[in-house]
Amino acid sequence: MTPAAPPLDGDSLSACALPDEAAAQSRRQRQAEALREAAGDLMDSPHGRRLLRWLLTACQCFEACEPGPQDSPAALYAREGRRVLGFRLLRLAREARPTRVAQLLDPEEDDV
Fold this sequence. Notes:
Order of helices and strands: HHHH
Number of helices: 4
Low-confidence stretches: none
Shape: flat
C-alpha cells in the first residue's frame, strides 16, 4: 500500500508557486528595463524625440476632450484609452531620461 500524499495547504501551494512567480517577476523587470533603455535611446536623439512628440500628439495627451451629444460611450472610452497610453509613454520617457523631458515637450525642436 502506498503512503497517502500529504494534504495540500496554503503554505505548500505558495512554496510551489514561488519559483514561477520569481521567474515571472524577473522577466517583467528585464522587460521594463529594456523598454526604459529603448525610450532612453529615443530621448537621446532629436529624431527619436520627434517620434515621441508625434505619438503623444496622436494620443491627444495635451488636448481637453469635451464629449459632444453624438459621442457614444465607446468612442469616449476609446479616446480616454488613447490618452492613457500616451501618458504611459510620457512616464516611460520621463523615467528613462528625466533631464530631456523639456526638450521632448518643446515643439520648436521640430524646426531643427
